[in-house]
Amino acid sequence: MSRRAVVIGAGLAGMLAAAALSTVADEVVVLDRDELPDGPEHRKGLPQGRHAHLLMAGGLAAMEDLVPGVSMRGHLLAAGAHEIPLGSGMVALTPEGWFRRWRHPGPHMLTCTRALLDWAIRVAVLANTGVEIRKGQALELTGTRERVTGLRVSTGAGEEELAADFVVDAAGRGSRAVKWLAGLGISDVREKTVDAGLVNATRLYRTPVGAARFPLTIVQANPYLGRPGRSGMMLPIEGDRWMVSLAGTRGGGEPPADPDAFLRYALDLPDPIVGRLVSGAEPLTDVHVSRSTSNHRRYLEKTRHWPERFVVLGDALATFNPAYGQGMSVAAMGAQVLARELREAGLTGAGLARRVQRTAARSVEGAWTMAVSQDVWFPGTRGGSPGLADRLVTAYTRRMIRTATGSYTAASAVWDVTSMTTGPTRLLRPSTVLATLNGPPLPPAVGAPLTKQEREILRDLDRTGT
């Protein structure tokens, strides 16, 4: 008998889940309500899609394990993505000072538009599996509290019931999983939202002649000053372009959509380097603004009952403030968990769905803790405030970041956790703790750690007289 799996959502999480399912199902159908573009173009179903996205090493490693017959790293680089070594290819101002750049490159991350990333993954999955994409909208689950048997869907031809041996909800922030589960009799799903009111504003520029190798540049927000956070980032993307994303929290930190005010905002950051860079670069787009940035988590792994053959992954499970660059990697790791469990138990193995949901929650927990433990410090944050545990963790973390500005041992621990190649417990290894207690052996950097050539590029681009 033919076995069918259905995935809701053709974004990154959905296509990776479909790749995992393709190894054990005879038919894998991906449902998406959008008309999917033929190339790397923005689509309505990704409200955050025009802004900066960072694919961390841990997420890329998960992808490499998911799509048969293709190196996702090579595929993405061939499509135009850039590979950035955290240790040597990034200039970053943290709340505790400038990170140094070391000879050792450290873990790598990939930068490109979200449109390119989603398109490249979709192409790779469709070319290397039997996955099929259909246009349609999922309306509700069918089945019982014990087992999901499919979906009721709406298509151009009307409503119909689509039977399935396995269903994955990867519908993103707009997922209706909690409502659907309640319809099956599972009504004890706990949810939590922590919202710093972050607003993103992004504009694309042509990479200036001679500046193609300028490092990714970040001025991070400082959540510990008792005032709204403000940050900015310049990252290289495909097509010889720079993406410049500014971000600020509610209460006066929000970046503007007006182009002139956008530049002034960048120049008024704790360091004006991002504004100085783009003051002499050619803008290619208007400023795009988005407010879909809250941390939201559904604790599905903690429900008393869970139906067989139904899993929720990606943003449908948890969303994070995009400033921390974790969402795509967490989604890929969740799909990797699904693939691993499917290899061991098959599509219809007893208890498989619950195991996937509980195991996927582990990577969610690490990312959630990292994001929320900083967001609760911004004034006006809704849904959370720093407690005693937060204060203790923050005191240690701030000391460790301060140490990392002048200590390779501490910096490498930060890179490993940031890149999601290890969990937060990496910060508690004896060598890291000892380095943190001793403090940085090197003095603080006076300014951005640029090479002579990079300083010349910055000076040539600067139209502000700074």
TrEMBL record:
Keyword presence, Oxidoreductase: yes
Matches recorded under InterPro entries: FAD-bd, FAD/NAD-bd_sf
Residue intervals of the FAD-binding domain: 5-345
Leader sequence segment: 1-25
Keywords tagged on the record: Monooxygenase, Oxidoreductase, Signal
TM helices/strands, residue ranges: none
MF terms (GO), sorted A to Z: FAD binding; monooxygenase activity
Name of the protein this chain belongs to: FAD-dependent monooxygenase
Gene source species: Streptomyces ferrugineus
